[in-house]
Amino acid sequence: MLFDVTGPGGATIHEVAGADSPLLETACNLFEAIFPDEGRYLPYLRACALGQNRSHPNTYDHVWLVKQDGEWAGVRVFSYITSRSFGHGAYVGLKSNHRGRGLGNWLVGQTLAQLDEDARKFGKEGAIGYLVEVERPMDAYNEEEREYRRKRLGFHRRCGGIVLPISYTEPVMIEGVHYLDPANLHDEEPRPMHLVFIPSKLGASLPHLDLADLVHGTYVDVYRLQPDHEFIRKSLSFLKEIVYDRNNEI
Fold first, then answer.
1. What number does CATH give the domain 8-247?
2. How far apart are CA 175 and CA 236, in angstroms?
3. N or C: which end of the chain has fewer CB within 10 A?
4. Ranges of each domain in the chain
């Protein structure tokens, strides 16, 4: 993608490309500042900076830095799922003094444009959108956290996001990666989440979404779970219940 598009307040996007990128440490430091509780996932960010990584065989990954007002304002990590026609948004975060200035919405548009370019690179007509995992407000441990989760979910909805009517559990990490010892995540547990789909113009024009394809793309192609994994069975079983209920409406 040619990063010649200027965003709100003169914002610009800078790709972090390769393990030797001079921007990689900046991205890592900014990630830790914005997501102080997620530092253990820095190896994932470093792996995504490679674009194509042997531990991510079904995704084409991106790490972006956003600059605004002459300083690094945010970081974006996302992937195009090469076996599908949609992407997966892992992280998007802005420093507090750069929030509320339209950067988030602009980054969603730039992400969709990049995924569309990726789709064509891999022989597709275009990308239909991308998926994000969002914490459920109902699971918050206090009112402050609940309000934060409501705002985050509200942001994705304002960007056109659709909360998919499925049961979704976020795995702790991609299965079988070479860059992270599972022991480093031994205190982590899978979490129930909302799975939110943000459609592109192409995706918004579709008469319906193939929810089973979205589920498989996330679990099988991104997280590398086996097709018969309990998380997948649970999500697909929930879909079957929805179809059954609709077919039996009076």
1. 3.40.630.30
2. 20
3. C
4. 8-247
Rounded-to-integer distance, Cα 30 and Cα 98, Å: 13
Distances (CA, A) of 73 to 9, 65, 147, 218: 11, 8, 23, 28
> Could you give the CA distance from residue 89 to residue 159 in angstroms, rounded to a whole number?
13
Residue 220 Rama label (left phi>0; alpha psi -120 to 50; beta):
alpha
Tokens 């991106």 -> residue: 62
pLDDT in tens, 199-250: 999 999 999 999 999 999 999 999 999 999 999 999 998 775 544 344 444 3
Amino acid at 14: H
Name the phi and psi angles at 230, rounded to 5. Answer: -60, -35
Please enumerate, as own/partner, the contacts of 95-104 that have beta carbons within 8 Å and a separation of 24 or more. 95/30, 95/33, 95/34, 98/66, 98/68, 98/69, 98/73, 98/74, 101/8, 101/9, 101/68, 102/7, 102/8, 102/9, 103/7, 103/8, 103/9, 103/11, 103/66, 103/68, 103/73, 103/74, 104/155, 104/159
CA distance 162 to 157: 7
90-115 confidence digits (pLDDT tens): 999 999 999 999 999 999 999 999 99
CA dihedral (32, 33, 34, 35) positive or negative? positive
**Residue 148 in 3-state DSSP?**
helix
Instruction: Read off the tokens for 33.
Output: 């500042």
Q: Which residues share a beta bridge with 65?
A: 14, 75
Query: What gap in Å lies between CA 81 and CA 149, rounded to an integer?
Result: 26
Cβ atoms of residues 79 and 60 within 8 Å: yes
